[in-house]
Design the sequence.
């Protein structure tokens, strides 16, 4: 349609870059470029035999495809007890997985590696699945380098007990790391050639990494130790079949727009840097404001990364606080399982963050004191 | 990203129309507009209580959602024996439906209404499902007005026998009708308030109707006689849940581009008319050329609409002909179940159509005579 085509700057794209079907699995150049980017962001990947990323219709589509391919009714899936509620919908409700939870934090307020290991070992099944999302949604926590070493050791021990593990790393918020000690590479980089019995999957997306939320462009990458080309090709082909059965192929204009920006864009780096700096300053402001707030009703969970942070509502109803905040103050927060309130500081101007947090603590006092 | 934003003509879109998440179920204005369009194209719909179309990630995504919501393992699904092979992948392989086939054509070379009715009645289940795709892929056949009346009567008879029927109309190629006697409205318009026991679903898409193949924008619409607002809202909410579990939400830039073109585009109508005329002239040319070709190896199936037509290979291997055409003549045709060859004349310039058909008949002689 000329009316659609005329919305693009003249000569920037050929009609086929906008209107044609994208290849199943995605634009080849974009896939190759995303592969390079992953290596750049995760240098450990440089020498690893992994698949080239396949394009999915956003990160959720990737998660859903993994469910279709690797999660059957009754399969055990280990999750931390603070997680994105769509996991429950996708893996629990839709694919019928048996969800095994462990406490996200240990007593030292770090990532609960021991709890994770025990949860994996508690499964009576030989093949166990685990889904980890760092920076975690809703807590905004990413393990430290030391914790990542411990996680890797824990996986080795579970495998030594005779189990096979599928580890799905949801890297939706990858890159939003604000502290020195935080691990800066995806767990996938450590796991993709750790052991023949560990099947590592990386789900990531341009959605947040490249700040194109409305573009439905995610990626899936596979790796395991000793993987032959035949095995990796089979994984690719099974996934292509699943993509064909769910969406046929993924959005073309978004892929062309993203590819052009990544290839030729003069401002990409600066734009991303500026956004990162802005998010970092909001993060620091939240940290600062929280230092001055004390409450027996709201306990902030440790956080060091991502777009948001969460509070334990200490036995009180998070839903009650959510509706009160909305009705009385017109502020939207997210309730998780009625025990946790998530605050997305990414969408709050830095000047308003102090107000937001203060009002939240005030509201908790008003309804619970 | 400014680099992406700068690819659009200045001031044509706000950043949020390109970068933000689209609402679950799609852009509200686009949904309302698509609803109006469906009524314009299917005037019978004007007085019917149907749901407003929900946006899906292309037509395949709509088909897949219907599978998730309404097709369980072992459920009978009736299909004509000439069908798009993705139906088999989606409903047969993925959702485990038991596929019941009927011959697409009857002895008079029209749509086999009686065969369809018998197939529905042959099911031992109280609830039966049927999927009809007009213009049909791969044959390019759409029932005549008279045949549509007979189809409607057949459904009434099946319902009278005590069955409930789910009828999914895949209108992927809607509008590409070249003959006078062909029915010009979707079957959905006749079925959406025919009977309390008939649940009608319309799957359509901007993909071909608006010629934006690479944009993943499809729609799902529901209707049945006596449907209350509560019932229709429940259907919408179940579908929104399924969308959230598969792709979270659908592509934003595509929706904005399409909406703008449909709302303000000065050339939309003329562009579509020109493309239609071009397709019609290719269709007429294929008809013309076929009049001069006779072969005991290739029998063209009746066709009157769509983008392509198909040949019965009369007991010979369609795959053999496909590979021979590709190897010797560099021409791609599609093999279906080794018995049918599909020719997509939509992508062949009118001056080359005679050559294409002549070469196909020649190739059949070369390998089978």
Sequence:
């Amino acid at each position: 349609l000329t009316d659609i085509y005329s919305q693009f700057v003249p000569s920037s794209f050929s009609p086929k870059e906008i209107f044609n079907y994208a290849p199943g699995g995605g634009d080849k150049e974009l896939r190759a470029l995303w592969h390079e980017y992953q290596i750049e962001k995760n240098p450990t990947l440089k020498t690893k035999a992994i698949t080239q990323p396949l394009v999915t219709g956003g990160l959720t589509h990737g998660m859903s495809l993994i469910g279709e391919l690797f999660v059957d009714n009754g399969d055990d899936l280990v999750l931390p007890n603070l997680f994105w509620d769509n996991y429950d919908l996708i893996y629990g409700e839709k694919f019928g997985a048996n969800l095994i939870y462990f406490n996200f934090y240990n007593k030292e307020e770090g990532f609960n590696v021991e709890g994770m290991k025990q949860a994996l070992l508690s499964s009576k099944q030989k093949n166990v699945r685990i889904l980890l999302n760092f920076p975690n949604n809703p807590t905004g926590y990413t393990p430290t380098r030391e914790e990542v070493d411990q996680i890797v050791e824990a996986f080795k021990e579970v495998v030594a007990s005779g189990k096979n593990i599928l580890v799905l790393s949801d890297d939706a918020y990858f890159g939003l790391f604000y502290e020195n000690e935080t691990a800066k590479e995806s767990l996938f980089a450590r796991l993709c050639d750790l052991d023949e019995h560990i099947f590592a999957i990386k789900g990531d997306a341009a959605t947040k990494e490249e700040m194109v939320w409305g573009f439905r462009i995610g990626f899936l990458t596979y790796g395991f130790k000793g993987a032959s080309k035949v095995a990796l090709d089979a994984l690719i082909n099974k996934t292509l079949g699943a993509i064909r059965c769910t969406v046929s192929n993924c959005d073309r204009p978004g892929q062309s727009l993203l590819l052009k920006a990544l290839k030729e864009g003069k401002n990409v780096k600066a734009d991303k840097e500026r956004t990162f700096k802005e998010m970092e300053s909001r993060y620091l402001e939240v940290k600062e404001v929280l230092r001055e707030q004390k409450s027996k009703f709201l306990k902030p969970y440790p956080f060091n990364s991502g777009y948001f942070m969460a509070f334990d509502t200490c036995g009180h109803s998070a839903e009650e606080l959510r509706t009160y905040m909305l009705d009385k103050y017109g502020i939207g927060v997210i309730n998780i399982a009625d025990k946790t309130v998530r605050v997305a500081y990414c969408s709050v101007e830095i000047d308003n963050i102090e107000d937001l947090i203060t009002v939240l603590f005030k509201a908790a006092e008003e309804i619970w004191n």
